[in-house]
């Protein structure tokens, strides 16, 4: 089973990959780790495949590139290696029960670069966990944004995408329940948006009104890379994704 972690910088992708991998190993599963971040310096896991063996941001900056230019150039150079990287990931997938992919810290360098698209297209039914931070959930239309962004990731990369609210260890029970209500009950969210007089509210209302028609069946995972909450749910979703008798409702 291939599970990839995607999210904005600071969303906890790398920590999640390491912690979830250790959880799976404690459950008796064999796990392979893949690092696709050319700029990371330290990892909480030992990668079985590491793109830093091909190119690093640090090396490119030594050539004269600035930080952003080095990131873009690193994936330009990896693009020619995407076939080989995909084959190595598929080989790991055949040898281990789980292969966890840690994507770049700067999400756009994977999501909007052809390297990320071609790689995901070359893999065998990967499940993608889209991590987002509770800090961005301030107003009703923020929840609409999160649900649609997960759908756009699915559209861009062609992968089944599961929204994962990470860092729930930072939330009170009341805060967590409020997030769950907005994220899971689209009718409730739409009703709240209907009375939002702002242009953002109107746009979100119209979008959420037809979200059930365009969104595939999926459920949100509430997790903490620090204390392990939600790992059992993520494991279950991973299994259901590969099981012909299951779905992600």
UniProtKB/TrEMBL annotation:
Gene3D superfamilies: P-loop containing nucleotide triphosphate hydrolases
Signal peptide residues on this chain, from the entry's feature table: none
Record has Ligase as a keyword: no
Keywords associated with the record: GTP-binding, Hydrolase, Nucleotide-binding
A Pfam family: ATP_bind_1
Keyword set includes Cell membrane: no
InterPro entries on file: Gpn (IPR004130), P-loop_NTPase (IPR027417)
SUPFAM superfamilies: P-loop containing nucleoside triphosphate hydrolases
A Gene Ontology molecular function term of the record: GTP binding
Family affiliation: Belongs to the GPN-loop GTPase family.
Record protein name field: ATP binding protein, XPA-binding protein 1-like protein
Species this chain originates from: Thermococcus gammatolerans (strain DSM 15229 / JCM 11827 / EJ3)
């Amino acid at each position: 089973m291939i599970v990839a972690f995607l999210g904005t910088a600071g969303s906890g992708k790398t920590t999640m990959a390491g912690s979830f991998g250790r959880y799976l190993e404690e459950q008796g599963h064999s796990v392979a780790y893949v690092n696709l971040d050319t700029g990371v310096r330290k990892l909480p896991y030992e990668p079985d495949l590491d793109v830093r063996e091909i190119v690093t941001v640090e090396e490119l900056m030594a050539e004269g590139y600035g930080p952003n230019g080095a990131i873009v150039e690193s994936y330009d150079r990896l693009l020619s290696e995407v076939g080989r990287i995909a084959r190595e990931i598929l080989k790991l997938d055949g040898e281990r029960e789980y292969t966890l992919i840690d994507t770049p810290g700067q999400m756009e360098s994977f999501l909007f670069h052809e390297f990320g698209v071609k790689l995901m297209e070359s893999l065998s039914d990967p499940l993608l966990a889209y991590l987002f931070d509770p800090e961005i959930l301030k107003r009703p239309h923020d929840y609409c944004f999160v649900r649609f962004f997960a759908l756009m990731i699915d559209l861009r990369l062609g992968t089944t995408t599961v929204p994962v609210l990470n860092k729930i260890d930072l939330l009170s029970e009341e805060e967590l329940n409020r997030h769950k209500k907005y994220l899971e009950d689209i009718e409730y969210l739409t009703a709240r948006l209907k009375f939002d007089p702002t242009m953002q509210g109107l746009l979100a209302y119209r979008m959420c009104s037809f979200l059930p028609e365009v969104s595939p069946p999926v459920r949100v995972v509430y997790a903490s890379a620090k204390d392990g909450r939600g790992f059992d749910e993520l494991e279950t979703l991973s299994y259901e994704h590969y099981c012909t008798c299951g779905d992600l409702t």
